[in-house]
Each structure stands twice: as C-alpha cells, then as structure tokens.
Design a protein that fits this description.
Number of strands: 8
Structural class: alpha/beta
Strand order of the largest sheet: 1-2-3-4-5-6-7-8
Strand content: 5-15%
Order of helices and strands: HEHEHEHEHEHEHEHEHHHH
Number of helices: 12
Low-confidence stretches: none
C-alpha cells in the first residue's frame, strides 16, 4: 500500500481534530464510561477525527492495558464516523508494542510521539520511526517536538518511508517547517500531511496555514467545541476578522493562563471539561491540578468566548 493509499485510508477531513482527555474515577482508575461519553460528545459536536491517548489524553500515564481499553472504546464510540488515531511512544520496543495494541483495538492510524528521554541523532530517529511504521499496517504521523527534531532531509526520508504519511509539529520553528514543507514538496511530490501540534494550536494557526500546514490539533475542542468550530470556520472561509476577535478575546488569554503552570496544557483542559459538566477526574502525577484562582480565570475566559459567539449571531 502506497503512502497515498494510506492517506486516503486515514481520510482526515477538514475540521477540528479532537484530542479527548482520559477520564479517571475517584479512585484514580480509568473511567471508561465517562471516557466514552466524552468521545461521543466530541464526535456529535463535529470533530473531524479522534486522537485517542495522545498528549492531552495523558498517554504517558497509561498502562498498556488501559491504553488498549481506551483506544478500543474510542473506536467503538466513533463507529466509523470519523477516524481514530492512537498515540504510540517511549523507546522503539515499547512504541512498537503500543502500535500493535492500537491496531488490535481497531485504530485507523498512529501518532508516533518522541522516543523516551534520549536525545538521538537524525540516523537513529529515522531508524526508530521506520521500525514503528514497519510494525503495523496503520498509517503513521510522526510528532516533532522536544527531543525529536528533524532536518528537512530527514523528513524527506520519513516521507519516502512506507507507512509514514505525515508530520505533526510541536516545536514552533516556522522557518524550519517552511524548509521541511518545501523539501518534501520538491523531493517527494504527492500526499503528505502536516499538522500544527503546538499547545492551543489555534493561537499560531494563521501563520502555519500560510506556510502550507492546514491541519491542527484543538485541545479547546474538548471543553468549548462551539468556539473551536467557529475559529475553524473563520479560518476556512478566510474570515480573518472573526478569527482575530476569537484570538484576542479567548485564545490569547487562555494561552497566557496556560503559561502560568507546567502541565497546564493538559490539566487546564481537563478542568475545562469538568467545568462544562462532565466529571473526567483529575490529572495523574506527575501533572498537577490548576490552582483555585486559575480555575476561576479559566471560567471567565470561557464565558467571554461564548459571549463573543452570541454577539456574532
């Protein structure tokens, strides 16, 4: 199967990409019933794809058994309406294990996260992702961030690798991304997917869209899908005025609040989901919950965002 076939198989349509949080009960165990409800709500709200057990879903905190159960639950709840992409990570052997668990659970694709801890050279990174891609028939999106940063030449080789269909960028170096897009376009013409994977990606998506990165993850969609959808519509329609109003009144304040605590890219999102009426529990260590004042600020930011939508009607 060619990379083009795999891109077609994954079939991510235009729309917000939903990264559900993983729900935990009062005793800290995975709450699959609440997780299923969260996934159902996201799909019903208009998610273009479900990225299960990835960064926002606390992949790092899940056992293999919990991971497989959550991916399977997401697949069952989407019922083929949108693709389900599962995380895979750690060292090569464990990443391969998670990839195979995801395939067994019915996932449509994989988001291959950086290897655990080590800072590897380009040759080692390329070997790592090629081994993950070879382990299953699932299409693989490689996640660039932290200790997995690629040269344009390495991304060209990734794009030539059977099974690897895209790159998600969580680094934020637009110069590097422009050179990557240009190199792949020149050396490997055809379908290759690009994603903006920065936390609260809407904040930077106007810039990413301009350099040829049309897809982006939306953590905001977890707790304020109407706001996320309004921003996406404005982006697609070229309605810059609406996009900028949402950036000024909602996204920028949210990003500034997110910067107030380590791990808030996950714990603030989870607090937002609870605030909107679904008790998904707290984050697992080593992440921590936002302080009371920050939760209050989050409620005010969400309120302002929805007020802006009402004003626009």
């Amino acid at each position: 199967m060619t990379s083009a076939d795999l891109v077609h198989r994954l079939g991510i349509p235009s729309g917000p990409l939903f990264f559900p949080v993983t729900a935990y009960g009062a005793d800290g165990s995975v709450d699959l019933d609440t997780y299923r409800a969260h996934v159902r709500q996201g799909v019903a709200a208009g998610a273009a794809a479900v990225f299960a057990c990835c960064g926002t879903g606390e992949f790092h905190a899940l056992t293999p058994e919990e991971f497989e159960a959550c991916v399977r639950a997401a697949v069952e709840e989407t019922a083929g309406r949108v693709p389900v992409v599962a995380g895979a990570g750690y060292g090569t052997a464990l990443a391969v294990r998670y990839a195979r668990l995801a395939e067994a659970a019915g996932a449509d694709g994989l988001l291959a996260m950086p290897p655990y801890l080590v800072v590897a050279g380009q040759e080692g990174l390329l070997r790592h992702y090629r081994e993950v891609a070879a382990a299953t028939a699932l299409p693989v999106i490689v996640y660039q961030r932290d200790n997995a940063v690629f040269t344009p030449e390495t991304v060209v080789e990734l794009a030539r690798t059977e099974g690897i269909i895209g790159l998600k960028d969580g680094l934020g170096d637009l110069d590097l991304m422009q050179r990557i897009v240009s190199a792949v376009r020149t050396e490997v013409p055809g379908d290759f997917l690009y994603f903006n994977g920065l936390p609260t990606a809407e904040q930077t998506q106007l810039a990413y869209h301009a350099i040829g990165v049309p897809l982006y993850s939306s953590a905001v969609f977890c707790f304020a899908p109407e706001i996320a959808l309004a921003f996406h519509r404005a982006l697609v329609d070229g309605d810059r005025a609406t996009a900028e109003r949402l950036l000024d009144a909602f996204y920028r304040p949210f990003v500034e609040l997110r910067a107030c605590g380590r791990g808030y890219a996950v714990s603030l999102v989870k607090a937002g989901v609870r605030m909107r009426g679904l008790d998904v529990g707290e984050v697992r260590p080593p992440l921590h919950e936002p302080g009371e004042d920050h939760v209050k600020q989050l409620a005010e930011i969400i309120e302002r965002g929805y007020a802006l939508l009402e004003e626009a009607q």
